[in-house]
From TrEMBL:
The keyword Oxidoreductase applies. PROSITE patterns: ADH_SHORT. This is Putative oxidoreductase. Belongs to the short-chain dehydrogenases/reductases (SDR) family. Coiled coil: none annotated. One of its GO terms (molecular function) is oxidoreductase activity. The keyword Oxidoreductase applies. Residues 278-288 have a biased composition (Basic and acidic residues). GO terms for cellular component: membrane. Residues 272-320 are annotated as: Disordered.
Amino acid sequence: MSLAGHSAVVTGGSRGLGLLIADRLAARGCVVTLAARDEDELDDARAKLQPRHPQVAVRTSVCDVRDEAAVDAMMRGAHEAAGGPDIVVANAGIIQVAPLESIDDRDFAAAMDTMFLGAAHTALAALPHLRESPHGGRLALVSSVGGLLGVPHLLPYACAKAATGVLAEGLHAEVAADGVSVTAVYPGLMRTGSHLHAQFGGEHTKEYAWFSALAGAPLISMNAQRAAERIVHALVRRRTRLVLTPAARAADLAHGVAPALTTRLNSLAARLLPSGPRGREPLREGKDVASPQGPVTGRLQGLGSAMNEEAADAYNQRAD
């Protein structure tokens, strides 16, 4: 379906999945506003997208989704520059990978501020425009398989994503009568290169090792371009819920049918993950934990991280 004449906003749009979703929207003829915190990353993202889609405008807007006023201003700016927006994707997020003993309430607060409140600010600022869209507004909130069940060593992330999923489902019920569709998106692991910007605690290199290996493993993770295409297709079709990757769908089904058993299996999986020192230490980004030439990454090549490293180059994850 063509989206010519539509205007879209994608938060977290400067790299990774957000950048790919913006690419797929622009490919359908949609004017796109990329919103993120880092101006340099946004400039790099626009430089990647605009030559691919010269028929539409690719805009950028520096915006911290944790700041309600900033989100309101960003949405007004998108409306004044490009009309609409008719489509909004709340995708901004952070990933914290650490055992429970190495985190505290500050990490939960950071995850909730960025992913849940960020999605809420985005949705609430967008709804007045989406209600007025002549095309019928479309809103997508990106949750995660971590929002479907508690994933060990990803607890702050999982809690925030669970709240985001509930927000999407509640909004769908409340705004359907206004002609606005809301899609809750639950991706599984994807090869986006996000391991370089994920934050790691506890035994940093070991946490980085297991996460980056799984995130890049071909049989477990999903090609991010295919994921972005499916998300945009779900938006166009006004689907209520989209769960991506066979592993995520299996986890969703298992937790729905046998939640107690799934929780016990999660407990067994947690025992296989690295333990960490008690007490919170500063989390470190993946790009600071191991270099592409380092021994950790070298061992991971055979486990699938090579594909994730290629994705990092392609999807603007190398920017500092």
